[in-house]
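Extended Data, panel c. Modelled sequence:
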Amino acid sequence: MEGDCKPVVSVVIPARDEERVVGRLLRRITEFTYPKEKLRVVVVEDGSTDDTGKIFDEFAERYSFIKVLHRQRSEAKGKPVALNEALRHVAGEFVYFFDADYVPERNILEKLNSAFLDPNVGAVQGRIKVLNEGKLVSRVVSLERIGGYRVDQLARDILGLIPQFGGTVGGVRCSLLQLLGGFDANILAEDTDLTFRVYLAGFKIRYVLSAESYEEAVEGWRHYWRQRYRWSRGHMQCAFKHLWPLIKSRNLTLREKLDGFLLLNVYFVPVLVGFGWLLGALSFLLGYGLWAGYTALLVTLIYLASGNIAPLSEVIVGAILDKRARLCRYIPFLLFAFFLNVLICTKALIDLLIAKICGRPSAKWDKTVHKGM
């Protein structure tokens, strides 16, 4: 796809109160090597109370390929709603998405475009790296990203499984998005939801390892909790929504169905582990079936030692492949992060079930605060 052969594409950026980071992303987009006459950038200022809208307008005045959509605070109901508003103004064959805190490489669109040469590919996903590693929590997140994007996503792509669309640093065919009716505004994890809707529609997702972008990771455990809570609750919503259609679908292979089943249920695993800990502790403390209590404790220890060996191996292998073995010194803190995720996922499941029983709407979309590292 060189020269005149490059298709017209759109880039969508949703942002609310992102004055510290969005200028950095827009500057990088103006530096893209993609022909500007083939590029349309749609930015959604989603009811900001800071200077995000002002920054958008300044760039739009200087660059004709940037279009700004301003939304009132009363209209701001989360990222999926903002994305659907932007989709009404996109043009071209593919639409790419970047969150406000990201810094993609200059030729990322060309790399992502290459995956769409296969007409069966409905969406593509690039690699995410952590920009700020000055704090303990951001280093833990960096390890998670290395394991997830250096190894796990690549393995899924190579093995013909289901690489996950991450909602940022990726793109979708415009025609497919129109067919699917855009994003589901009731799902907190709109990226996971779109992943399975793409496959259920008979298309595939490709992962492009070489298409890289940096992100600003959270730096405190409180922000880590809030972000992971949104992810886990949204992912569980997707499990309730897509498990049965996944099983019945004729558009997925048996291998894809098995992988999809495991992927949809991944956030329930910490809940089951926590439940196992509780049962083991109660059996031991109450003296009820002492042997069973020791057995439960032993099974739990075996799971921690071997059941989690896969993601741990992904982190170690990814760090070695990236020549970042020194980052492995922070691996013990992944254990604390796992303990934290047991609590996060358990709370997310309880809250979700209560909401379903009481007929309440989905939880409010809680954005991550960015500081502009």
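The CA atoms of residues 147 and 313 lie 8 Å apart. This feature is highlighted in the accompanying rendering.
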